[in-house]
């Protein structure tokens, strides 16, 4: 692959569907404006729940074929977002979905949670050499909500950036996905009297396993025009996100703003110009001239 786009964005996610739920609007927004968007997914999501009864036999405890099926869901989701460069870390099936923290699946020989950090990071460095991304997105050290594969994806991405630094192919800016506490508070208020309240039992945003103080947010990407593409990408992951999902319930109440606005903290690199009370960036490439990063080479070139 020869990449000629001046802007290059790399995303590192744990399972198929994570990219659409957490960063789908951002991906669609940048793809539409000509940025080369590269998605790296670390597992096939073999341990995911199945919300389509007719496919229940694909589950890990049954035929154990869900991972293969989710490859097709991911491909469909990427088409909806306009993303053509999507890869599995080390190739499809190299690393297995570890399941939720503390389950026996964490100890599977191929579980991503058990992957050798430098070996997995080295595989990501190979992609960085080819793509030469200026910007990378992944999770925070807690994996946003504590899933072992999300935590491991964070570790692998950050270690890869460290290893790629001396070669000059590390991203200049690294963002972690985030959700401002003010947004969570607004959602809790809006659903306080709803029968299908997704925040039922939660008294304050601080009680949730995710949520970032507003003054720690670095970027707010307003991609409301890409909200429909994000929702279509989510619907492509039908085994994981049923039509009754609370995500669609929230979307029906907040519409394009919920689907089309995504937030990030800046983990590495210099913050660019922003606006508002906290100086939030509106562009992940803010303050980053394209000449800061060498032109990418064809695949295989070193």
Automatic annotation (TrEMBL):
Top-rank taxon: Bacteria
NCBIfam families: mycothiol_MshB
Cofactor: Zn(2+)
UniProt similarity note: Belongs to the MshB deacetylase family.
Binding site for Zn(2+): 15, 18, 150
RNA-binding recorded as keyword: no
Record's keyword terms, sorted: Hydrolase, Metal-binding, Zinc
Biological classification of the source: Bacteria, Bacillati, Actinomycetota, Actinomycetes, Micromonosporales
Cofactor note: Binds 1 zinc ion per subunit.
The protein, known as: 1D-myo-inositol 2-acetamido-2-deoxy-alpha-D-glucopyranoside deacetylase
